[in-house]
Amino acid sequence: MTVKDLPILEHADARGLHRNADVENGAVEFGNSKHKQRKAAVLIPLIKSAGQWQVLFIRRASNERDRHSGQVAFPGGAFERTDACAIDTALRETKEEIGITPDRIKVISELGPYYTISHYRVTPVVGIVQWPSNLCLETTEVARAFLIPLNWLRNQENFTLRARNELDKKSAQRHPIIVYNEFDGETLWGATARMTMNFFKALDEKAFLLPS
User: What is the pLDDT of residue 119?
Assistant: First the structure.
């Protein structure tokens, strides 16, 4: 079974769109296990292209040792001792993975942490990328980089809310899996889709502003 085969929830609780963990009550569960947490950060790269705002995503390279192998993601990775903060981690990983240097990124916000089922405490960093920029993919980690328009991502007709299985529909009403329709041959879902929703929530709450 692929993620596209998961049962669609017709009447899921809309509050389920905005969660800060992979699973229901996950932030409490993972947050109380501080010794197990590993800090990480991702960049949500915003680009003004063709007269509209777009988001730059990557597809992770195939790797049998990576549980997220082949999935759509944001550039990013684990905190290293040389990083002073989450922003340093996000910018360093972006340069390593897709070749965009920090001087071409204007950081405009830092979102609240997102807890993954693999015990990462991920901080999403929002940044505007000067465009065009030359991309240089680290092919052992990144198979592809591509753009999705912000307006397309916002449109509720372009994603569905799903249960993990037929027996999970009750809890899934509160904490569904978000699965986007295919765009340019790619499927955005899971933790990256949730962080995308949390980005929109912060934008709507005016936690930061995008230039016109």
Answer: 86
